[in-house]
Each structure stands twice: as structure tokens, then as C-alpha cells.
Amino acid sequence: MSKLLEVKDLRVSFNTYNGEVQAVRGVSFELNKGETLAIVGESGSGKSVTSNALMRLLPEPQSIIKSGEILFEGEDLIKKSKKDMQKIRGKDISMVFQDPMSSLNPTMKIGNQIMEGLIKHQNMNKADAKKRALELLELVGIPQPAIRINQFPHQFSGGMRQRVVVAIALACNPKILIADEPTTALDVTIQAQILELMKDIQKKTESAIIFITHDLGVVANVADRVAVMYAGRIVEIGTVDDIFYNPKHPYTWGLIGSMPTLDSKDEELFAIPGSPPNMLKPPVGDAFAPRNQFALEIDTVMEPPMFKVSDTHYAATWLLHEDAPKIEPPEAVKQRMLGFSKTGRKDGEKS
Amino acid sequence: MTNEKLLEVKNLQKHFSAGRDRIIKAVDGVSFDIFKGETFGLVGESGCGKSTTGRTIIRLYDATGGEVKFEGEDVHGKKSNAELRKFNRKMQMIFQDPHSSLNPRMTVLDIIAEGIDNHKLAKTPEERRQRVEELLEVVGLNKEHATRFPHEFSGGQRQRIGIARALAVEPDFIICDEPISALDVSIQAQVVNLLKKLQKERGLTYLFIAHDLSMVKYISDRIGVMYMGNMVELAEADELYDNPLHPYTKSLLSAIPLPDPRYERERTRIAYDPTVHDTSEPAELREVTPGHFVRCTTKELEKYKRELSLKKK
Q1: Are the beta carbons of A349 and B250 separated by less than 8 Å?
Q2: How far apart are CA A249 and CA A243, in angstroms?
Q3: Residues of A in Cβ contact (< 8 Å) with B243
Q4: Whether B163 contacts B195, CB under 8 Å
Q5: Which of A188, A196, A215 to probe the B interface (max B CBs under 10 A)?
Q6: Strand residues in B47-150 grouped as ranges (E)
Q7: Which of A48, A41, A328, A90 is nearest to A182 (CA)?
Q8: Measured distance between the N- and C-terminal CA atoms of chain A, rounded to whole angstroms
Q9: Pairing relation of β-strands B230-236 and B284-289?
Q10: pLDDT tens digits, one per residue of B107-157
Q11: Looking at CA atoms only, how far is residue B280 from chain A in angstroms?
């Protein structure tokens, strides 16, 4: 697999009246061609800021990229001028936003919104662009594209609108598609359709997807690799099987344990106590330590580095240090690591 | 859970006028009972009428037709102020959005004490404050929080304030309208644990409205599935998940992604096709096995019964 994107030690801060908010504090990851990387974390963990930084869509001048490199095909996107970025946005890297109600222009016909990028980036004439727009609408599964192309966003349902947004994002065959909670605002059945659509298109176009979400079910469905973010850092990264069946970081344990299985009934859910830290004053040491029942003394002093678990799997917790006590994940989490759905559901579905 | 009916909903209808002669039938003939001490889950897609059902039960909307009986008494219809007050004390609601359901210009103390004031449950200001502080501790906040304003709290904490407000008048029945949808995953578990704990301690009955099916399964004793303003299937939580009968329920269950990659690789989605139904007579909610109801015609009923007996063999 070839490296398409490499993010190195990215740090982003926002200047506010109250002081500097350190939203992203040293994020590094790689993205390979044709794979799907899911970034999970709570609101405020910095997942959207990271993805917006990749697109250079952060508001200026409030936000500052303090350090880091974003290497896309060997070129650093942070050093690009605004003009150069415009050539990349929508062409090489494009984005699907969370809310399909507000990410389309309500005064423009759907067709023109899709054609905009084609005319701009691929120097198509109007007739060719329209042809391509029709193909795209067909590709994302909108019935009667010839009629729909002349309609306005308000004439579409939420799921249909998100399909249009996906069509716009795909118009120029981007190498990277960033999807920022693309299904959070949608119903489960519509969500399933959009996820299937994205996977299907990925197979055809071989583009890489960065999928941002907080829904672990969706992650299990779409991701090849998963990065778990907490307080502006990646605390664990690995293949989807590493993260779900062999999680090492106590925060990942908490995330997995807080979801009920379809068999659990009377036992209490394994909740993470407390709430995420204030990023105006990030805690010294491991940011998760105050909520971590397994916190060691060193957690309050020094931030843990990334420890290697396997070639694909890394986690930032002192528990992986050779001198640390061997701690087993809590019982509730262990159960979930065996699999969520061994009984019940499956039979119900085959019928 | 006892067999005593706390709430009876019979053929409840709520229609909204959408200008001219257009009518939207948000809830179109829904019937179910809720027993004392149980949690009844109501699920469905957005727009299926589940929230409207909840809001009509608590009289936030006037019903277009049908009946809601709480402890044998009709909820709707004319009531004197005294009767209304009595009713309002017994039934409370927790809302979805903790950001917009708390008055930003009131302190937490005043928000929680509003019900106490209205029902004159505290004789002195001292007692009033004491009650609020107790409630704050019950929902896992500190009494120091009482003097603060809602914007000083996180989403999960605000939802706790909403729960404390509902508990202030010591209700028997609480309608939870998507209480965890707006919260982060790690906070959702905290709130669900709290709701379960309170139910055990105080013998509360819940109507839990949500679209997150795995959480609903976890918290509910019985679940009703709504589609386009109708109840299409109603059964005990395990029964519904193990033996879904209505095609819409099957489709809904097959669409939920579970946090289990191995399972996800095999999962196939069933699409719902409303044309498969028998239309020879109007469909209604019928009992297939004791406690398991499906909206169907008599012909379909036979089919479902056969399906179920084949599976149980």
C-alpha cells in the first residue's frame, strides 16, 4: 500500500477571549491509498479540527497551526498559498459535511452545484459537465436524475440531500474523501444506505476515506483502521480488529464498555466518570488520567508516548510500559471484546 | 414490574393542519398500555410520530381523537386547575436537547424549584433550597451547583439538571424524549445508569423514546416500533429482537450497525418494501403470541404465526 497522506505532529490552537485553546496537540498518522481511516472521539476531542486542518478550512485568524506537516503526495499542504489550496480542494481532497441541510446552497439548482467543481477543476464545458453530473446522480442512487438535476435542495429529503453532497464531493474523483460525521443527522435506514453507497464508490474509484464519527457501530462497519482521539491527541491507533478485539488504552475500554450489547440487561453500563478536560488548561501528564480508574502515578507527571503493540497497533498509555503493573480490562469490556452479537440478533436477521 | 396498568393509550390520534385542507396525520390510531414500574421503549425513524405520541400523552398537544388514561382517569378533556395540578405532578418529561430545554436566565436552583413552587411543596425558602440540594445530589451534581446558570454546565450535566427538575415533584411516570441522543457516548452511559438507578430506588415508570435501538433494548422491558404514525409491532424487548415479524421491524433491526467488526462484515441489510402487505382488509394490531403484537391483516396473522412456530422448532 502506498502512502497518500502523512500528518506529522500537527498542533492547532484557537485564540479566544479566555486564552489559547489547544484543540489539537500533536497528531500524527498516515493514510494509504484506497483505505478507510476512522477517527473517533467525543465532541471537543479535536477530530473535526484535524480534518478541517487537512483541508485548510480552519477560520483565520482565530486559529493557528502551531507546528506540524501535512504531506500530501510529498508536498506540505500547510505551506501552500490560498490559491494553491483552492486547486486542491474539491479536486484531490474533498469533503462531506455532517449536516446536509446546511451544506448545500439553497438558492442554486442541484445540477449547478455539482457542475461548479467540474467546470472549475476539470475545465469542462457546460454540456460535458452536465453529462457528468447526470452520471454522478445516477451513481449515488438518485432516481430520475434528469428531472432532479433542475431541482433545488429544499425539494430533496435529508438522505437524498446527503447523496447530492456525496455526488459533489466525488465529482472530480478525489484521491481523499473526508467525511465529517456524514450520517449523524440521518436515520438508521438512511444511514445504512449512505454507508453502503460510500463503500461501493470507494471500491470503484479507489479513493481513500477519512471517516470522522463518534458512533462505534458505524466505525465497525466502514473502517479498515481506527484512530481514537482524546483531548487533542491520538491515544490509540490500529486496525479495526485491533481496536475492537484487543484495545489497550483505558479510554478505548471505556468507549467500548459504555455501549450495551444486545444481551446485556441488568448489569450497569461501564461508564467513564467525569467529563472531558478543559482545553484552555490541558492537564499536565496524561489528559485522561483524572477519569481513569487505572491511572498510575506517572500519568499525572508525564504524558505517555506511543507504545507499540504490534506493527499496526499503537497506544499512548503508561500501562504498556514494561515496568507498569499488568492490568486486565474490566469484565464488561472483556465481554464486548469477544463480540457483541453472538446470540439473538443473528437468528432474528436470517429469518 | 406489576400487571397494574399505569397508562392506557387507546386509538390515539394527533393530526396537524398543514395549510388549506392538507392534514398531516402524525399519530394515527396508536394503542398501548404501560404497566407500573416498567420501561416502555418507543422507537422509529424521525417523523414516525414517536415524539408526538409522547407529547400528546402529557397534554403538550391536544389529541385529535382517542383516549389516554392515566391511573384510570382521562388525561385529555376539560379539567379544573386543581385536577390539572394533580395530574402534572404525577407525570413529567425529560427533553432531548439539554441546551434549549433549560431557561438560560434562571439559576439551577430556580429551574429545579419551579415545580416545587407551583405545587407548594416547600413551606419555607430554607426547605425549598434543601430539597433542590438533595435532588442535585441524587442526580450526581453538587449542591454548590445550585447558584449557577445552565450555560456553565456541559451537556451531560445539563441533562442531569433536566432529570432533577422532573424528579422535583415526585412523579410516578416520566416521559424521556430522546434523553441521550444529544450526548457523547461516554456520557450516554452515565445518564442511562442514572435513569436505571432512579427507577429502582423510586419505582418510576418510564416511556423511553429513542432511535438508538441498542440503548432502547438495554433499558426497556417492552418496545413498540412506530412507522408513519402507526404502531407496527409491540413485544417484550428480547422477543422483538429475537423474533421480529413485521417487515419494517426486520428492516430497522438489520440497519443498525453494531460495534463488532466481524459481525459487520457479514451483516446484510433488508430493505423495507411496503407493497408486500396484504391490502384485502385494513390492517390492525393483532396478537401473534401472548404479548407480541403485529400490525397485520388476518391473512398475514396466519403467516406470522406459521413463521414463528417454524422458528421455535
Answers
A1: yes
A2: 9
A3: 348, 351
A4: yes
A5: A188
A6: 65-70, 73-74, 91-94
A7: A48
A8: 40
A9: unpaired
A10: 999 999 999 998 888 889 999 999 999 999 888 888 888 999 998 888 888
A11: 25
pLDDT of B3 over the 80 cut? no
Name the pairing type of β-strands B292-296 and B230-236: antiparallel
Mutate to test the interface with A, among B45, B46, B186 (most CBs of A within 10 A): B186
* Mean pLDDT, rounded, for A198-222: 90
Interface touch B264/A220, C-beta < 8 Å: yes
Q: Under DSSP, is residue A163 helix (H, G, I), strand (E, B) or coil?
A: helix
Q: pTM of the prediction?
A: 0.84
A192:B269 CB<8 A: yes
The tally of CA atoms less than 13 A away on the side-chain side of residue A301 is 4
Name the minimum distance, in Å, from the CA of A264 to any CA of chain B. Answer: 7
Q: Indicate the average pLDDT of chain B.
A: 89
Residues in chain A within 8 Å Cβ distance of B258: 217, 220, 262, 340-341, 345
Q: How far is A101 from chain B (nearest CA, A)?
A: 15
**Nearest CB to A187; choose among B45, B193, B243:** B45
Q: Which residues contact B124 (CB under 8 A, 6 or more apart)?
A: none
How far is residue B260 CA from its own chain's centroid?
Answer: 27
Interchain pair B258, A341: CB under 8 A: yes
Q: What are phi and psi of B23, to 5 degrees?
A: -125, 135
Size of interface A-B (CB pairs under 8 A): 142
Question: Taking chain B, what is the end-to-end CA distance rounded to the nearest angstrom?
Answer: 30
Judge contact between B288 and B245, C-beta under 8 A: yes
Interface ipTM > 0.90: no
Nearest to B102 by CA among B43, B163, B144: B163
Minimal C-alpha gap between B136 and chain A (Å):
16
* A288: CB partners within 8 A, 6+ apart: A230, A231, A235, A249, A250, A251, A295, A299
